[in-house]
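User: C-alpha cells for Serine acetyltransferase, please.
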Amino acid sequence: MTLQARNIATLDPVWSRIRLEAQDAAEAEPLLGGLMHSAVLHHPTLERAIASRVALKLVSGEMSEQILREIADEALGDDPALGDAARADLVATFERDPVCHRFLQPLVYFKGWQAVQAYRIGHWLWLKGRRDLAYFIQMRVSEVFGIDIHPGARIGRGIMIDHAHSIVIGETAVVGDNVSMLHSVTLGGTGKEEEDRHPKIGDGVLIGAGAKVLGNIRVGACCRIAAGSVVLEDVPPCKTVAGVPARIVGEAGCSQPSVTMDQLLNGQV
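Assistant: Done. Predicted C-alpha cells:
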C-alpha cells in the first residue's frame, strides 16, 4: 500500500474500503474496469466521486455533465456535512439492505442512495437561494431515478431507501436521522394549503412499502409504519401503526426499528 493509500485509509476508512472493492471488482470482471476507474478509482475523495456520479446520472440536453459536475463540486466543497451525510447513508444502506454486500454498491449501482445525494445537492442550492437550479435538480432526479424529493424538504443522516421507486417527499417534510423507508412511500400534504403542510418523521422510524403519511403531523421517534398504511394523525414514539386509516396496533417491538427492518406485526392486531 502506498503512503497516499495509507493516509486515505487512516483519514477516510469508508472511501478506502470503496476503492479496494472497486479494484477487486475490476480484477474479477475486466469488462467493468472502465466503470470502476471512472466511478471510483479516478477520484481522490468520495466527494469527488459523488459529484461525478450525480453529474453523469443527471446530465441532459438542457444541462451538460460538466456544469452539473461543477455545481456538485461546489456544494460538496462548501458544506462538509454533505459528505458526512453521504457516508452515514452509505453505511446505513450496507447495514440494513440484505442485498448490499459491499460499500461500493450504493455509490455505483443503487438509485436510492444516489438520489438522496443528488437531493442533498439540490437542498444546498435551495438554502443558497438558487431556487430554479434546485428545482432543475429535483426534476432530473424524478425523471432519472423515479424519486421526487422537494429541495426544500429537510432530511437527516443515515437514511436508507430500499428499492427506491415512487418515493415522494414534500416541501415542508422533515425526516430525522437513521430513518428507513421502502418503495412507494409518500410524505405528502392533504390539500392545496401552502404553509407547513407535510409530515415530520422522527429519528429511527421504519416506513413500510406503499405507506402514505399525509398532512402536518408528527411521527414519533422509533415508530414502525406498516406497509400500505395511510397515516393521518400524530403517532407517539415507539409505536407500530397499521391500516387505512392507520391506528396504533402495538409497541414498536425494539429500540431501533429502522435498523432491524422487522416489518412483521408478530400477532399484533
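User: Anything notable?

Assistant: The domain at 166-268 is CATH 2.160.10.10 (UDP N-Acetylglucosamine Acyltransferase; domain 1).
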